[in-house]
Amino acid sequence: MASVAPSSAALAAAMIAPVPRTGDPVVVELGPGTGAFTAALHRRLGDRGRHLAVEINPAMAADLAVRFPRVDVVAAAAADLPAILADRGITAADVVVSGLPWAAYAGPVGGRLVDTIATALDPAGVFTQFTYTWSRWAPPARRQLRRLRSSYDEVLVGRTIWRNLPPALAYIARRPHVQSQP
Q1: Residue 109: what pLDDT?
Q2: Tens digits of per-residue pLDDT, 42-96?
Q3: Beta bridge partners of residue 174, listed in sequence order
Q4: DSSP state, 118?
Q5: What CATH number was assigned to the domain covering residues 9-17+24-176?
Q6: DSSP characters over 29-78
Q7: Helix residue ranges per DSSP H, the chain
Q8: 171: burial class by Cβ within 10 Å (0-12, 13-18, 19+)?
Q9: Are 68 and 61 in contact (CB under 8 A)?
Q10: Residue 116: Cβ within 10 Å count
């Protein structure tokens, strides 16, 4: 948890915008926390596709599993994503939605996390990550954006979502350079 309040419905809408409205997509949610994005994804998907939520905090994971029984909730680290997908027979995700804070991208494992996520995506996949507007110019945020730009063909920077506390924006990264392993 990296905020004083859960993410708003407006931020959730921006984060899940790339999730297809038709078909059966595989959607992975990293760091669902209290479930603000989980609820929005649940509404978007309905009974379609697969929704996998990876939460490192076991108590939060257990709560999410009770609140969202159709979601496959795993108490694990985002860095374990390739193994988590393989255990479920999933070769690639269509969309990865991340509520992870910058701290998750620090250190040796975190430094590779953007590429780890890219390898878990379909070649046409999309990764969304948010950042708080006020801290966007700090070195960790700039480093994260550089990593996104080096790992994806296209990185869109969304508009500031003022109806979030604190105000935030979404990065939408499309078409990973790093391809998933067979």
Answers
A1: 73
A2: 999 999 999 999 999 999 999 999 999 999 999 999 999 999 999 999 999 999 9
A3: 126, 154
A4: H
A5: 3.40.50.150
A6: EE--TTSHHHHHHHHHHTTSSEEEEEES-HHHHHHHHHH-TTSEEEES-G
A7: 9-16, 36-45, 58-67, 81-87, 107-111, 113-119, 139-151
A8: buried
A9: no
A10: 17
13, two tokens:
């809408």
Nearest Cα residue to 43 out of 66, 73, 21 = 21
Please report, for the chain, the start and end positions of each structural domain, with discontinuous segments joined by +. 9-17+24-176
Question: CA 170 to CA 144: how far, in whole Å?
Answer: 13
The pair phi, psi for residue 15, each rounded to 5°, is -70, -35
Average confidence (pLDDT) over 3-8: 75
Q: Average model confidence (pLDDT) for the chain?
A: 92
Sequence length of the chain is 182
Percent of the chain predicted with pLDDT > 90: 80
